[in-house]
Each structure stands twice: as structure tokens, then as C-alpha cells.
UniProtKB/TrEMBL annotation:
Beta-ketoacyl-[acyl-carrier-protein] synthase III N-terminal domain residues: 119-212
Domain Beta-ketoacyl-[acyl-carrier-protein] synthase III C-terminal: 253-335
The keyword Nucleus is assigned to this record: no
Keyword Plastid assigned: no
InterPro entries: ACP_syn_III_C, ACP_syn_III_N, Thiolase-like
Keywords carried by this UniProt record: Acyltransferase, Transferase
Protein name per its UniProtKB record: 3-oxoacyl-ACP synthase
GO biological process: fatty acid biosynthetic process; secondary metabolite biosynthetic process
Taxonomic path: Bacteria, Pseudomonadati, Pseudomonadota, Candidatus Muproteobacteria
């Protein structure tokens, strides 16, 4: 039912890139005149999802540009030269090219990490967590000593596709179906991983699960073509939280952790309401959950690494403290990871 592996690596550094432009949720709903078209108040995204604004990438910026900028910051923080990177995984949903080449190769060229093996991993919002798990395995088997995982999410591409469609209709059911696309924001994120410094620090374990019977709850790109993002938000959140709740006790037992030992609880953020659901099954306080969804929206695969970046930059976690990560993505795919924080 669950895939479990012990952790063999640590986070060496993280990096992010945030576009400068900010767009409020009220502005988006005013653009489609949601109050008159669908009887949806202009502050609906603020009240129901807890999303006030998001960042929007410049029209000429590619996903690889955002990923490369985040990677460059991670390299600078770690003091690692690009030639010392052994593997690059691009884990984003949005890519430079629909089919070929892999965006990881484009990032490799932009940061000049020519000694690395590069490839893409895609699994909706869960892609970065899969990338971490795979990189841990490469490090564990000696195939890589320094691994780089990157993403460059431009979810607002699908926000504006939804807006274009909603401006042509007064069908409230279509608004509900496309509302997930209105929650998205843009960001780049990167993580450099390396071998553990001490056995009892770094990634302590990973647990993963996939449930394909829920694969139709969020779809985009049918027949390999660009299309609208259609989401059954209520159902996908309900099923995802149920899966994570069932996994939690099993994984915590594997780790040998107790809820009160968790210093920070980082999870994939699609809206503010899910925070309470996570807190309930995990038996932890909302106060230990970092919040970026309010000001950045749903950052797809960039959300979790960005929150880990903030924890490190703001010195919110001390060496030896425990950080719990809950990842999720449509499909449905979920994972949980435990980290004993270490100073890089």
C-alpha cells in the first residue's frame, strides 16, 4: 500500500525566484465580473481560499529562466560550482517545450552544469517531492554526490486561460470547474542535496502512495494539447487529506516520532482551509505551519521548496529540530517526509 525508504541525504541549500508583478485575487474576479456573471463576490478567493494575491512572471520569461535563477541562488548559498553538480532533475508541471527537449537540459545549459546528468520528472504538484526521493536514491547508491532539483512554475498561464473562457459565459458550473486555475501563482525553486553529515540528521525517511482511481479529479492537457485546467476542488482536497491522514500514523511510527516533537509542518498549499485539515490529522498546532499561499497562491511544485527556503533564510528552525513534510498532487499522489534539520 505504501512505499517506504530510509533517507540517505540532506538539504545542502535552497534557492527561489519570485517575479516582481503582483496581481490580487479581487482584480482577477473583477476582470471576469464574477459578481454579475456568476453571483460570486469579488472577494471570493480571499474569503474561501485565503489567497489575496500571487506573483505573475513576465511574458518573455520561460520556466527554465525561473528555475535557473533559483538554481543560481542555491549554488551561491552552498558555495558549489555548477561543474560539481552530478545530476539535475526538473520537476515542474510547466515546461519550456510541450514534448522535447526536457527542460532539465535547458536549465543545465543556462547554469553551465555540463558534468551533470539531466532529466525531467513530472507528477503534477507532487513532482518536486518525487524529485527529492529520486535524488536521495542517486546519492544513496553513489551515483551522485551533489544533486540539483529545480522547478519553474508559471501556473498563471492557466489562470489567464480560465479568465478568457469565463469572460465568454455566465455558466456558474464552469466557474466552479475552472476556479482551481484562479488560485495559481508563479515561482521558481531549487534544492541542492548531498550525503548526510551525520546519520541522525537530514532526510530520515520517505513514504509515498498513488491512487489512480482519483486521476480524473484534476485534468489539463488532454490528448497532449494545451487546454483549460479543470478541477473538482472539494473532492480532490477531501480525498488527498484522507490519504495523508491514513498514512500519517504509519509513517510516524516508522520514524519513531511524536506529534509534539515536530517543530515545523510543511505541506502543499492549495488554500488556507487545508491547514486545519492537516493540523487535525497530524495533531499539531496551526502555528507551526508556514503560510505562503495567502500572498503567493498555489505554487504547484514550487510551494514546498519555497517554504523550506524561508525556514532556512529566516532561521525559523534550529539544528536538531524535526521538520515534517506532506506532499500531494493530482492523480492522486501523496508523500510524507521527515527531516532532522542540520546547519548547511
Amino acid at each position: 500500500m505504501y512505499m517506504y525508504t530510509q533517507g540517505h541525504s540532506r538539504i545542502v541549500s535552497t534557492g527561489i525566484y519570485l517575479p516582481e508583478e503582483r496581481v490580487t485575487s479581487i482584480h482577477l474576479l473583477e476582470t471576469i465580473d464574477s459578481k454579475n456573471r456568476f453571483d460570486i463576490p469579488y472577494d471570493w478567493l480571499d474569503r474561501m481560499m485565503g489567497i489575496n494575491e500571487r506573483r505573475v512572471a513576465a511574458p518573455d520569461m520561460l520556466p527554465s529562466d525561473m528555475a535557473a535563477k533559483a538554481a543560481q541562488e542555491a549554488l551561491e548559498i552552498a558555495g558549489v560550482h555548477p561543474r560539481d553538480i552530478d545530476a539535475i532533475i526538473y520537476a515542474g508541471v510547466v515546461r519550456d517545450y510541450l514534448l522535447e527537449p526536457a527542460t532539465a537540459h535547458v536549465v543545465q545549459d543556462k547554469i553551465k552544469a555540463y558534468n551533470a546528468v539531466a532529466f525531467d520528472v513530472t507528477n503534477a504538484c507532487h513532482g518536486f517531492m518525487n524529485g527529492i526521493h529520486l535524488m536521495d536514491a542517486l546519492i544513496a547508491t553513489g551515483q551522485a554526490r551533489r544533486g540539483l532539483i529545480v522547478t519553474g512554475e508559471q501556473g498563471t498561464r492557466y489562470t489567464y486561460k480560465a479568465i478568457d473562457a469565463l469572460r465568454q459565459t455566465a455558466d456558474r458550473s464552469l466557474f466552479v470547474k475552472l476556479a482551481g486555475g484562479l488560485t495559481l501563482g508563479d515561482a521558481g525553486a531549487a534544492m541542492i542535496m548531498g550525503p548526510k553529515l551525520e546519520p541522525d540528521t537530514g532526510f530520515m525517511g520517505f513514504m509515498l502512495q498513488s491512487q489512480g482511481q482519483y486521476s480524473r479529479l484534476c485534468t489539463c492537457g488532454k490528448d497532449g494539447q494545451e487546454s483549460l485546467l479543470e478541477t473538482d476542488m472539494a473532492n480532490i482536497i477531501e480525498q488527498g487529506i484522507a490519504m495523508l491522514g491514513d498514512m500519517y500514523d504509519v509513517f510516524m511510527k516508522k520514524l519513531g516520532w511524536k506529534p509534539e516533537e515536530i517543530a515545523k509542518f510543511v505541506h502543499h498549499q492549495v488554500g488556507r482551509k487545508v491547514f486545519r485539515h492537516h493540523a487535525k490529522y497530524a495533531k499539531v498546532s496551526l502555528e507551526i505551519m508556514p503560510d505562503t499561499v495567502s500572498t503567493l497562491g498555489n505554487l504547484v511544485t514550487a510551494n514546498i521548496p519555497l517554504n523550506l527556503y524561508n525556514l532556512d533564510k529566516n532561521h525559523e528552525v534550529k539544528s536538531g529540530e524535526k521538520v515534517f513534510i506532506a506532499g500531494a498532487g493530482s492523480g492522486l499522489a501523496i508523500s510524507q517526509t521527515g527531516i532532522v534539520w542540520n546547519a548547511a
